[in-house]
């Protein structure tokens, strides 16, 4: 009775927070030395990755995943979509071969029908919903429809006017597909699959979207984006895109369909035209994304509602055509070594091997010298950092300039404050990095000594109970305006940023 009631409540309630968010990974296989399925599964297990999305339903992969407890989304590739969408029998056959043959040993929990169909294969759009329905009927016939959800991943580019999120709507050309699709997702208890790429949003914004906003880095409150209609504050692009999807569904009167992010990530390497595809940015994005998701933070519109996310992607794919960045979205190289070491303090057990507490706070490139000096004075004064290593003759005196000295002081403050959010900002002149700035005998707090001993960072200064990143002692007229110009839709963002 209680269970029936609970089920009823969940079925009728708006988007609800009935389970924790998880992090999964996508498995692209365009590698010249693709690890075999056993090796892939070994890596997933070592990293405690419990959720995987395949771009097909590779038999060997599904066999290797049997009895591991790893939950798997299998996919109908775009080139099989037309057949399935046109024939109930073909769909049933696909399910028999690729799903029924593997469950329950392999825990298949979702089927992704095609990928970015509306934007990359518009000719198949008319049969997309039929394909979902046919696959679902086959699951229903085998009584698997409740444990295996059917959906189709969308590019976020089908959402128009996505900032402010409250004005977002799906490209109306696709209403004939989106309306029955959302009806299907709602009636089957499935979810909207959405690919969210703040990297591309940032790249295409011509400088309107600040990099920090794309990377989940703390923004000074004066720079947060505010949706003027809802007064919701947005601190990162990811949340804004997910909320745009909720609002676009609301625009079509659907209020109780959850969003699962089927792809998100950041490339760690690019060519000359992709200067922000760097190891540091990829690490920052993915580390912050994982922390954000696993914290069950939800979004401003639906706080606490989990937004489970699959990172794009497990391996770097050297055979992928296109720009350098296309080949460098992976967390791991084909030999299973991490491309970079994620910094995941407090994120829980996923990607457990990669955890490290080594992040540092440094002066931002090109920061204004006067602002740096003011922040340095604050850190060594009211901020109560022990700046004695910066005195003449001491280990961190050289190089004797405001950038090096403020870097030392910013980092000492950040470590002293246990790296809590907002403590590496200093009115925008400081930035977090994973690169240890120690040099020679100048060991920075928070860095491991050569023998792995963590340099003491808690004894540097008397404890302070200030939670602000810098006191109010900086002259306010020196910051707060951002000279962005652009004619894109992100101008709305600009307005709210500047005129808040
Ligand atoms: C598969 O995953 C679901 C969802 O977490 C879980 O409830 C179920 O017990 C799992 N089944 C197996 C066989 O591991
Ligand atoms: C498709 O096949 C299933 C059985 O696999 C059946 O229950 C369903 O009614 C069929 N649907 C259509 C539209 O023919
Ligand atoms: C909406 O979708 C149609 C059909 O794909 C496309 O031609 C059009 O450019 C899209 N509109 C916008 C603003 O992206
Ligand atoms: C949504 O509901 C409102 C109020 O019931 C109605 O006026 C509107 O036409 C509906 N929109 C759609 C797309 O069904
Ligand atoms: C975690 O969630 C809490 C509220 O549940 C929020 O206050 C906090 O800022 C979140 N932390 C991160 C890192 O998102
Ligand atoms: C993860 O940790 C396990 C055990 O500590 C180790 O055997 C394995 O090589 C590590 N994997 C990576 C990718 O570091
Ligand atoms: C990382 O930091 C957390 C919390 O500050 C601490 O519990 C953990 O032991 C640290 N891990 C390492 C390897 O220093
Ligand atoms: C590691 O280095 C620290 C500081 O340099 C030193 O105090 C400690 O004794 C060293 N530990 C070992 C095991 O060598
Ligand atoms: C580290 O800090 C603790 C607590 O303040 C202090 O007792 C200890 O002596 C310090 N260790 C070093 C090597 O400075
Ligand atoms: C913060 O510091 C002030 C003055 O040093 C003290 O009176 C107050 O109790 C402290 N608050 C906390 C929460 O420690």
How does this model look, in words?
The protein is an alpha/beta fold and 500 residues long. The chain folds into two domains: 12-354, Alpha-Beta Barrel (TIM Barrel), CATH 3.20.20; 357-469, Up-down Bundle (Methane Monooxygenase Hydroxylase, Chain G, domain 1), CATH 1.20.58. It is 32% helix and 11% strand. It contains 15 helices and 15 strands. The protein has a nine-stranded parallel beta sheet. It has a two-stranded antiparallel ribbon with strand order 7-8. Strands 10-11 form a two-stranded antiparallel sheet. Strand 12 (259-264), helix 12 and strand 13 (309-311) form a beta-alpha-beta unit. Helix 4 crosses helix 7 and helix 7 packs parallel to helix 8 (175-187). The termini are far apart. Mean pLDDT is 84; it is low at 1-13 and 449-500. It binds 2-acetamido-2-deoxy-beta-D-glucopyranose (NAG) (10 copies). One 2-acetamido-2-deoxy-beta-D-glucopyranose binds at residues 252-253. Its EC number is 3.2.1.39. It is found in: Cell membrane. GO terms for molecular function: glucan endo-1,3-beta-D-glucosidase activity. Residues 359-444 form the X8 domain. It is a lipid-anchor; GPI-anchor.
Offer a concise description of the structure.
The chain has 500 residues and is of the alpha/beta class. It has helices at residues 2-12, 37-46, 59-64, 78-86, 88-100, 117-120, 125-141, 175-187, 198-204, 211-214, 237-251, 279-294, 369-380, 402-416, 491-499, and strands at 23-27, 51-54, 71-76, 107-113, 149-151, 153-155, 159-160, 169-170, 192-195, 225-226, 233-234, 259-264, 309-311, 360-363, 430-433. The protein binds 2-acetamido-2-deoxy-beta-D-glucopyranose (NAG) (10 copies).
């Amino acid at each position: 009775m209680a269970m029936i009631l609970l089920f009823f409540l969940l079925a009728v309630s708006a988007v609800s927070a009935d389970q924790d968010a998880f992090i999964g990974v996508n498995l692209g296989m365009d590698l010249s030395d693709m690890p075999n399925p056993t090796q892939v599964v070994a890596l997933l297990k070592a990293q405690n990755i419990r959720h995987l999305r395949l771009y097909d339903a590779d038999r060997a992969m599904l066999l290797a995943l049997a009895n591991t407890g790893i939950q798997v989304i299998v996919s109908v590739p775009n080139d099989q979509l037309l057949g399935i969408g046109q024939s109930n029998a073909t769909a049933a056959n696909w399910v028999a071969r690729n799903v029924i043959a593997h469950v329950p040993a392999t825990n298949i929990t979702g089927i992704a029908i095609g990928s970015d169909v509306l934007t990359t294969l518009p000719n198949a759009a008319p049969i997309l919903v039929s394909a979902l329905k046919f696959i679902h009927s086959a699951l229903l016939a085998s009584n698997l429809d409740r444990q295996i959800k059917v959906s189709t991943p969308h590019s976020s580019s089908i959402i128009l006017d996505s900032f402010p999120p409250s004005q977002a709507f799906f490209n109306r050309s696709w209403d004939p597909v989106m309306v029955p699709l959302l009806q299907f997702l709602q009636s089957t208890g499935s979810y909207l699959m959405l690919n969210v790429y703040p990297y591309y949003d940032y790249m295409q914004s011509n400088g309107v979207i600040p990099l920090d906003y794309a990377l989940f880095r703390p923004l000074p409150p004066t720079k947060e984006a505010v949706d003027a209609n809802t007064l919701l504050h947005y601190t990162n692009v990811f949340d804004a895109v997910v909320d745009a999807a909720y609002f676009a569904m609301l625009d079509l009167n659907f209020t109780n369909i959850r969003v699962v992010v089927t792809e998100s990530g950041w490339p760690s390497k690019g060519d000359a035209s992709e200067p922000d595809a760097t190891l540091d940015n990829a690490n920052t994005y993915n580390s912050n994304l994982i922390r954000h998701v696993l914290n069950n933070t939800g979004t401003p519109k639906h706080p606490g509602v989990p937004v489970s996310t699959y990172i794009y992607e497990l391996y770097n794919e050297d055979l992928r055509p296109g720009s350098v960045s296309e080949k460098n979205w992976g967390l791991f190289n084909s030999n299973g070594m991490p491309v970079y070491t994620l910094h995941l303090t407090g994120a829980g057990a996923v990607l457990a091997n990669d955890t490290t507490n080594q992040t540092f706070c440094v002066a931002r490139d090109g920061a204004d010298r006067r602002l740096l000096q003011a922040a340095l004075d604050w850190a060594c004064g009211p901020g109560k950092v022990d700046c004695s290593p910066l005195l003449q003759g001491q280990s961190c005196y050289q190089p004797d300039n405001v950038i090096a000295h403020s870097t030392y002081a910013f980092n000492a403050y950040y470590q002293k404050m246990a790296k809590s959010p907002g403590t590496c900002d200093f009115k925008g002149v400081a930035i977090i990095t994973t690169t240890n700035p120690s040099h020679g005998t100048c060991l920075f707090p928070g860095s491991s000594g050569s023998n792995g001993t963590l340099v003491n960072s808690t004894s540097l200064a008397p404890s302070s109970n200030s939670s602000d990143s810098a006191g109010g002692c900086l002259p306010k007229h020196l910051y707060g305006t951002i000279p962005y110009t652009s004619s894109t839709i992100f101008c709305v963002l600009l307005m709210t940023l500047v005129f808040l």
